[in-house]
Structure formats: structure tokens, C-alpha cells
Amino acid sequence: MPKRVVVDVARKTITVYIDEGGYKRLRELIAPKSISRELDDLIKKRIAELEGREYNPLESADYEELKREHSRLVREVEKLERHLKRRRVYDDLLKLAYDVDVKIRERDLSNIEEIAPKILDEWDGLKEDAHQFITLLETVRDKWEIERKLEEIRKRRVLK
To answer: Which of 7, 62, 93, 107 is 20–30 Å from 19 (CA)?
Structure first.
């Protein structure tokens, strides 16, 4: 049965009818992003496609949302680092990560999926600590990606 969704787009409420199962699954997959924001992005992408131009998600990125997410990630990184340092395992895990993959020193965590199993295999301490450290690396990777986007947006603003 179609689900009635009321979407607030630019201060205008629009009612759309969509498949309820698809709606629920999309909501789960995009959390914490809102359905309204996702639909807005999809509409912009489709318009660009119909107009024959390339869709650039950075152009439509919500600057304020990026700043909020960056702040959240900074807090999360600090919390995870504090936790691991309190347990006195942070330095050892960092050394292990450097030994496993030199790219980390170059601020490149694009291959975290490849190095995570190596860290788990080679870590002699509690697996909980290794998992927390991998979560830290994944969070740092996300933070760096948002910093890259924010830098691009902020530099582009100066050029305009």
C-alpha cells in the first residue's frame, strides 16, 4: 500500500504517495539524513540529468549540515581517542596501524576495509580495543572527507 509522505520543500508542503516498504528502507539507509533532504537531492540529480548536465552533489550540499556533521565527528574522534588513551592502548594500536599500512601517515584511510582485518589479526590485546580503534579510523576518514568538502566549498566562495 502506498505511503503518504508530506515533504516540506522550501517552506512549501507537498504530499506524495510512495511505496511504504521502499520509504521505510530508504529512511533506514540514509539515517540520520532526513527523507526531505534525500528527496531534494534526488530531484536535483534528476533535473541535472534531464537538462543534460552533470550533477555535482557539492553544489547542493547543505553547508550548515556539513558543519554540524563535522562538529559531531570531531567530538566522536576526541571521545574515542580519550577512551583508548585511558586504556593505555592508543599508542600501541597507532604503531600497529603504521606498521600494517604506511598510507595512514599520509592521511589516507581509503583502504581501511583492507587494513582492519590485519589490525584485528595482529593485535595482541583485547579485541574490544582493536574494534574501538578501527571505529576511530573510520570516523577520522569520514571527518577528513567532510573537511575536504568544507574546504572546497569555502575556497569556491572566495573565488566567486
So the answer is: 62
Who's near 38: CB < 8 A, 6+ residues apart?
A: 26, 30
CA distances from 9 to 42, 45, 134, 145 (A): 13, 15, 38, 27
Count helices and strands in the chain by DSSP H and E runs: 7, 2
Find the length of the chain.
160
Residue 112, C-beta contacts closer than 8 angstroms, at least 6 positions apart:
134, 137, 138, 141
**pLDDT per position as a tens digit, 85-120:** 999 999 999 999 888 876 676 677 778 888 899 999
C-alpha cell at 156: 569556491
3-state DSSP call for residue 6? strand
Rama region for 9: left / alpha / beta (φ>0; ψ in -120 to 50; rest): beta
Q: Is there a contact between 146 and 73 (Cβ–Cβ < 8 Å)?
A: yes
CA–CA dist 101, 61 (Å, integer): 32
pTM of the model: 0.61
